[in-house]
Amino acid sequence: MKFLLVFDFDHTIVDENSDTWIVKCAPEKKLPNGLRNSYQPGHWTEYMGRVFVYLGDNGVKEDEMKRTMTTIPFTAGMVDLLGFIGENKELFDCIIVSDSNTVFIDWILKAADFHKVFDEVFTNPAAFSSAGYLTVQNFHAHHCARCPKNLCKRKVLKEFLDKQLERGVSYTQIVYIGDGGNDLCPVMFLKKDDIAMPRQGYTLEKKISQLAQDLSPVECSVLVWSSAIDIMSYLKLLIKE
């Protein structure tokens, strides 16, 4: 009997957007208007690629980026929640599916010693070039009209579950914890025994309520959280059952 916990990263595990947090490294802690206005909907990864080029051009080095990223705050209660999951790993498999990147998530989790809590992290691959510039690529290609072109979280979740089944692992329940619009697609894939945990006041919660108003509610149960302590209380009930 195992539960699968699926976490988003930005505004879920950390209380900020890791991609906009890195702007603290930029000259005067801001980006030029031309660069800021170059973002096109659905093409965030390409936009961040340009941001990283700008930082590199301005002499921002890896160690400075790492120092900045590891000051990002965790969401309220998240440190306790991840500690609790870490102590009960025999009951929980735990993955991250995020539109951030491998470098940022790795730095943040390792600095706080939480990397062992997560079995896998699915996010945009990033690396430093020989010139010392951070580069980022799309996670995968997909055909989902709902999702940004670099990442369909439903596809990631489905492929992960299929791979686990091949290994003989199936889950009693999936708990999906997120906040953003791109978390709706995987939530719509969940079954009635699963649970979606949208963060209170964020886009995912609003989109789930809109679906209910349009009389096409999601199939899974929904439990809203504002502090990660709410999530921990639910998980404690789960493992008592």
UniProtKB/TrEMBL annotation:
Catalytic center residues: D8, D10
Gene3D superfamilies (alphabetical): HAD superfamily/HAD-like
InterPro entries cross-referenced by the UniProt entry: HAD-like_sf, HAD_hydro_PyrdxlP_Pase-like, HAD_sf, Pase_PHOSPHO-typ
UniProt keyword annotation of rRNA-binding present: no
Residue intervals passing through the bilayer: none
Binding positions (substrate): D19, D99
Cofactor(s) essential for the protein: Mg(2+)
Pfam families the record matches: Put_Phosphatase
Molecular function, one GO term: phosphatase activity
Binding site for Mg(2+): D8, D10, D179
Keyword DNA repair belongs to the record: no
Recorded superkingdom: Eukaryota
Coiled coil feature spans: none
Key words of the record: Hydrolase, Magnesium, Metal-binding
Similarity comment: family membership: Belongs to the HAD-like hydrolase superfamily. PHOSPHO family.
PANTHER family: PHOSPHATASE, ORPHAN 1, 2 (PTHR20889), PYRIDOXAL PHOSPHATE PHOSPHATASE PHOSPHO2 (PTHR20889:SF1)
Protein name as it appears in the record: PHOP2 phosphatase
Source species of the chain: Himantopus himantopus
